[in-house]
Amino acid sequence: MWIILEYLAWAVSAAILLWMVADAARVNRLYDEDTLMSSVEGVDELLEHGEVPEAAEGVRG
Known about the structure:
Blueprint: H1 2-30, H2 33-37, H3 44-48, H4 53-60
């Protein structure tokens, strides 16, 4: 019984790791480094100043 729970825990851990890596790759693909490293909260404030060109394109059209 404990062996099954141990393997189940390892499987859940592996699934979470794969999910985290896939999410990191997706975020890296969607946003540039300046947006990710910005200290301003949210992209909406950046759009007001025109500092996020890839996000502004999505809003405009």
